[in-house]
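The instructor's notes for this session suggest beginning with a concrete chain rather than abstract definitions. Hand out the sequence below and ask the class to guess, before any prediction is shown, which regions might be ordered.
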Amino acid sequence: MSETTEKVRKTLARRYRSEKRFKAFGIGAIMIGLLALVILFTDIISKGYSAFYEYSVELTVHLDPEVLEITDVSDAEQLNYGNYTAAVRTALRELFPEVDEAREKRDLYSLLSSSAGYELRDMLTEDPSLLGQTLTLPLQLDDAADLYFKQSPANRDTVRLNDNQKSWLITLEEKELISVGINESLFTRGDSREPEQAGMLGAILGSFFTMLVTLFLSFPIGVAAAIYLEEFAPKNKFTDFIEVNINNLAAVPSIIFGLLGLAVFIGLFGMPRSVPLLGGVVLTLMTLPTVIISSRAAIKAVPPSIRQAAMGLGASKMQVVLHHVLPLALPGMLTGAIIGMAQALGETAPLLMIGMVAFIVDLPSGPLDPATVLPVQIFLWAGSPEQAFVALTSAAIMVLLGFLITMNTIAVVLRKRLERRW
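After discussion, reveal the predicted structure:
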């Protein structure tokens, strides 16, 4: 008896040790995953936070009509095409009167962004009475000058500026003419070749219109397909074939849907490239399997007793589905739709195939205007050679992750608040 007890004790000891090892491996795997996540977020935030603020220089600009070449303040064309760059350069040159060589002047002028003249134009167009006045204005610095102040003193030598430009920037800083503020351009402008002028508003609007089209197409179609397959379709080989293919489509690489959109919607139907309407249609095809599968799962979760009770009271099959099953399954359907939309929001490959990789400066005003989306904007900025685009890329990733986390949080909250336990 004692030998049997000893064997059982040893067996239990081995089992407990195995359980502890398995538990330790599980905890280790979770810790490694969390560590990788922390490293990823730390890297993105450390590179991208500087894109949310910018440095500018305070210049005293005289809006001289002769310098601006404006003789009639009521003439909109003169206001639009005035020589605002000359006024800005004159103000900058007054701070450094010793700069007289042509090459040095070019280096000095390059410290300011080319948008400085446009800022003056917009101000004068909005208020023509400013003509002839002297104003002290914060004007945007060029991306290299802006990056110079964002770098730590030890790393400022890596910025592509010559010694004269660095000394001029130090002089401006000593005179307390350098100020820092929120980078409004990041959320108010479209894309640009100049990093300090580049913004993601065009991509955000493009993503919004694309997701709008995707939602209006994928949700009704997916719910209708799920209701038919789950409630009305006969169980035969044909419906089995459809179900298998829906499950298979959920695992198809997203670029295949891009090729389908390129061949069918552009090649066959002649739809315009790089518009949110086309992107929404392509993403609808990609998200439909997810919406259908999640909607069917939500319908299956409704107890059969609900259907039987309704039919026992004389309701038709359609009334049972529309008045009882669908309202109870809707929270689960919405959750699946939001998850599918979040998946579509982060897709890049199918949109690259249909031309949404184009360089778009103007802000889209509707689904038929040329546009890009946030993932494609990140792809474009990541391939740009300017150093300042590194921060812009990381900032756009942070914004995209914010949208994705928000959508998934909404899905979780909806599921918790609206779900019913039977």
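Then share the key points. The chain has two domains: 60-181, 201-418. The radius of gyration is 31 Å.
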